[in-house]
């Protein structure tokens, strides 16, 4: 089966609204650690390696086990594959820790914090690296569970169309984007994250995409 690799014109404007909303537009600054959140997107590890090479942090923690969407691509676990990719990009082994058990973003944060604590490492600041459309949810989750951490968000810089092409499946990207948008609203109600602004244009774009059938990642 051939997957749709390009965004349909009918939904492009709404997808662009959500894409921009989830980008925190942070300026990355030097931090104590870089934290790469596991997912299907190997670009997270590429981003980590690039920022490490630029001296943004001396240590990387990759965190993630597997989800149904990553088991086939990363059979040894997300964090393990991220580490292998970063090593190929020139990051020295002694500068990488892995947390291979987390299965959601909350666990990514808390288990990374606990790993660093067990290692006796004092961490006051971090660069949180994720898929581009996961930035806002990752930030909101981190500020709930590790509020004292000074955190900036980063992703591999890539325009929307280039990202969709790299993933190779526009439906998957849009469904994930819609799902993350819903979680921005719902997770604070459940105590998983801090509240985030939710502009009317974002809500309208989200609702139109749901009506168009992009619902597979809704909770």
Automatic annotation (TrEMBL):
Residue intervals of the DUF218 domain: 45-154
Family matches, as Pfam families: DUF218 (PF02698)
Cellular component aspect of the GO annotation: plasma membrane
Listed InterPro entries: Cell_Envelope_Assoc, DUF218, Rossmann-like_a/b/a_fold
Superkingdom of this protein's organism: Bacteria
CDD domains hit by this protein: YdcF-like
Protein name, as recorded: DUF218 domain-containing protein
Organism field: Planotetraspora thailandica
UniProt lineage: Bacteria, Bacillati, Actinomycetota, Actinomycetes, Streptosporangiales
